[in-house]
Amino acid sequence: MESKPRVNRYEFNDPFTGSYFYFTNDLARDLEKVLSNPTANRIFWNTGKGSFGFRCDDKNVVLRENEFCTLTALNYLEVPDNDQKIAAIAFNREFYCIRDHDHEVSCNGILFYGAQDFSVLKFPPADIVPFQKLTDLFMKEFQECDSLHGEMLVSLLKILIIRLTRIGRNQITAIQGDNQSIEIIRKYNLLVEENFRKWKQISEYSFILNISSKKLSELFRIAKLDPPLQTIHKRVILEAKRMLLFSLKSINEISDELGFEDASHFSKLFKKLTGKSPSKFRSQKN
């Protein structure tokens, strides 16, 4: 009988701080561990030749060769049995908080919280080998395990996130190279993530960004992205879908939690964006 290939699984836990980091080069054989921490952010990337499918919230996701995606603790994941070679990293905010350290890696609004939409991104050919070498460094570091082990893992994770963020920035091809505009878009997306429950108007966000609503809308149009108002609406509806699918809250409770004064306004927006009423969407979830 052919022996199974060795699976590299590496875990860092600090019981005093609650820090958690996990790396595997074979998600299929280590899925339970990768998904075990409900507060972890995750990165999946397809290192094999075929395709890998799974479900994220209400969407079917497919990762093809050399494609990756980033996931937060907010995402609900259903990952079927699959022999495809997928590498994965999981880490919680105690290990490295991407919100508190946004000034270091600038990934929020591009990769994680506040991204315009759930994205599957592809590694450019020139980045594949350097990225493989970086994952090798993660595995080598677990052979050291000295007093600097945790700090070294954090440093490697930061390098990884910065590399992925650069790839994500380059996906905004219409304004590629316009770093100032990309930064405004990134900050807007992050503000929406943080405030979509209470702020529903573009003007509330443009004020914080010190830019007119008209100029902000024009910037998104030039970048060939969803209009800013649609970005707000889509984030509201995404949260509504999560609560309809994965909670027992009533539609009125969901409406209140999402900042609507009247449940009918919520239902109208939901149907406009999804084509279904909230109650019909919930009843068809299976």
TrEMBL record:
Keywords: DNA-binding, Transcription, Transcription regulation. SUPFAM superfamilies: Homeodomain-like. The lineage of its organism: Bacteria, Pseudomonadati, Spirochaetota, Spirochaetia, Leptospirales. InterPro entries: Homeodomain-like_sf, HTH_AraC, Tscrpt_reg_AraC-type_HTH. It comes from the Bacteria. Gene3D superfamilies: Homeodomain-like. This is Helix-turn-helix domain-containing protein. It holds the Pfam family HTH_18. Residues 186-284 form the HTH araC/xylS-type domain.
